[in-house]
Amino acid sequence: MNFIDEALLEARAGNGGAGCTSFRREKFIPKGGPDGGDGGRGGNIILRVDPNLNTLVNFRNQKYLVAKNGQAGSGKKKTGQDADDLIVMVPKGTMVFDIVSNKVIYDCCEEGKDYLIAKGGEGGAGNFRFKSSTNQAPRRHMRGWSGDELSIRLELRSLADVGLVGFPNAGKSTFLSHVSAAKPKIG
Fold first, then answer.
1. Per residue in 127-182, pLDDT tens?
2. Is residue 113 within 8 Å of 49, Cβ to Cβ?
3. Where in the numbering of this chain does the OBG-type G domain appear (predicted)?
4. Is residue 181 part of a domain?
C-alpha cells in the first residue's frame, strides 16, 4: 500500500456568473423596461473528513482543485444557476496549510464537518438592479466576482493505535519484532 502523507494543491473556487442586460418585450407593451437577471454564485471548495480513508494517495496525480463557475443571468429576471460545490474527501487528521504564509488553515479532525477552503464568487447584478426613477432603461450590468485562489499543502498526521513505553534495553524492539512484521533495528 502506498503511503502518501503530503500533497501540494492549487485551489480555485468558481467565479460568479455575469448579470444580463435585457429588456421586457411583449406584444402590446412597447417599452417594458429592464428585466435582466443576476448571475449565479460560483462553486466553493470544501474538504470533508472520510473515516474510510487513511492516506492522501488520491492526490498523487492531482495538482488542481477547480470548482465550476456560476451561470450568467438571462431575460425575464431569471437568475443564473449556482454552481455545485466541489467536495473533496480527506482522511481524519489532515492538516491544511496556506503555502504562502505557511499558516494552518484547518485541522480536519471532526467527521461530518465541512471545511471551506475557497469561497466561490458572487454573481453579478443584471440591469434590472440598476433601474431608478431617473434611469428607467439602464444598459449596464455587472460581471460576476472572482472566486478565491490559493495554494495549499495537505499534511496527514498519523495517529498511533499502540505505544510501547519502557526503560532502555528492556526489550521493546525485540517484542515488537516478534509480535508484528516490523523490522526494528535491535542492538
1. 888 888 888 888 888 999 999 999 999 998 876 677 788 888 888 888 888 888 88
2. yes
3. 160-187
4. no
Residue 175 to residue 187: CA distance in whole angstroms: 13
Query: In terms of Cα–Cα distance, which of 9, 39, 6, 10 is closest to 128?
Result: 39
Contact 63, 113 (CB under 8 A): no
Q: Could you identify the residue written with the cell 492522501?
A: 56
Strand partners, 114: 48
Q: Which phi-psi region, left, alpha or beta, contains residue 33 (left: φ > 0; alpha: ψ -120 to 50)? A: left
Q: How far is the C-alpha of 13 from the C-alpha of 121, rounded, in Å?
A: 7
Question: CB 55: neighbour CB atoms within 10 A?
Answer: 15
Query: Does residue 130 fall inside a structural domain?
Result: yes
State the cell numbers at 164: 510501547
Determine the structural domain holding residue 117 and report its residue range: 6-161
Query: Mapping DSSP to helix (H, G, I), strand (E, B) and coil, where does residue 171 land?
Result: coil
Q: What is the pTM of this model?
A: 0.78
